[in-house]
Specification:
Length: 79
């Protein structure tokens, strides 16, 4: 996992990278929410439509793919 560092055969969490990644993701959701509330209310009757859609399709699917790809050894990606 790109958030984990190899340390004597053990995998260790890279906390600064995790915090930065989560902060940028949260910031992106907040920006999307504030920019799309009126449009979502007018078109769908729910102010969080675009934000929830982005969370489910972008956030969850992206996290699943991230964890799946991170379990492949980096030497294999190099080939």
């Amino acid at each position: 996992m790109f958030l984990l560092l190899a340390c004597k055969g053990k995998r260790k969490l890279d906390k600064p990278l995790l915090i930065i990644t989560l902060a940028l993701t949260l910031g992106g959701f907040l920006i999307l929410a504030s920019a799309s509330m009126v449009l979502a209310q007018n078109n769908f009757g729910a102010i969080g439509y675009y934000t929830l859609r982005q969370f489910f399709y972008g956030g969850l699917v992206g996290a699943i793919l991230l964890f799946a790809a991170s379990n492949v050894a980096y030497r294999r990606w190099k080939k």
